Amino acid sequence: MTARTASCRCGQLRATAKGDPVRVSVCHCLACQKRTGSAFSAQLRWPAECVHIEGRSKKWTRTADSGQTCTYHFCPDCGSTVHYRGGNFPDLIAIPMGAFDDPYIAWPDYSVWEQRKHEWVEILGQDVEHID
Ligand SMILES: [Zn+2]
Ligand SMILES: [Zn+2]
Predict the structure, then answer these.
(1) For 131, what's the count of Cα atoms within 13 Å in the CB-facing half-sphere?
(2) What ligand is nearest to the CA atom of residue 77?
């Protein structure tokens, strides 16, 4: 079974996921823009039991307008978020796509919060589902 390892910038916090992700998405919401410092986020999700985590992390829990919470784990040294969990998918662990060293890792299946999408951004892919 394929195992893929994600890591923070300094490398001490790592998450290894076994098997294929069950959901691959990009998100244009303002919270994801703030988290990444980019125009949108890209993430892969696996069932929690498929993810093994090593290293030290700090965590921060955000409560969305919906009342749902999501807890983000980031490296206390370099600040990269390496895994998070909550929101609509409490049984899945999300790992930012950029934390993997593989530019071919996956195409997104979903592009969500497009009402917040920067107008120069276009998410390509035949099967991608665009959601406001
Ligand atoms: Zn780090
Ligand atoms: Zn988002």
Answers:
(1) 13
(2) 1
Å from CA of 27 to ligand 2 middle:
4
Four-point Cα dihedral 23, 27, 32, 37, nearest 10: 110
Alpha carbon of 76 to ligand 1 centroid (Å): 7
The CA 3 to ligand 2 mean position distance, Å, reads 26
Q: Quick check: 5 and 100 in contact, CB under 8 A?
A: yes
Specify the amino acid at residue 98.
Answer: G
In the prediction, which pLDDT does 17 show? 98
- How many angstroms separate the alpha carbon of residue 10 from the centre of ligand 2? 24
Residue 18: name the closest of 35, 43, 1 by CA. 1
Q: Is pTM beyond 0.90 here? A: yes
Let me know: does 19 contact 89? Beta carbons within 8 Å.
Answer: no
pLDDT, one tens digit per residue, over 29-56 is 999 999 999 999 999 999 999 999 999 9
